[in-house]
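FOLDING PROBLEM:
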Amino acid sequence: MKAFFEGIQYLFVNILFAPLDFLRSLELRTWFGANLINWVFMAICAAAMVYWIKQLRIFDEAGTENQDTTAHSFLK
């Protein structure tokens, strides 16, 4: 049973967390490079927000959005 948990430890520590260890060592050289994952996630979220707002504007201009307060049963 001990070998099973040591195998899990080896998988996570030496294989799956290796990219994160690289980013941690990269932090001493460049802060922006070490936070590359954060920048990518922020760019994805910004693109999703722009797309969402554009879709809201399309439905608002078409007049198909139901803004009545009774549109949902829990708002009655």
Summary: Helices lie at 2-16, 18-26, 31-34, 36-62. The two ends are 58 Å apart (CA to CA).
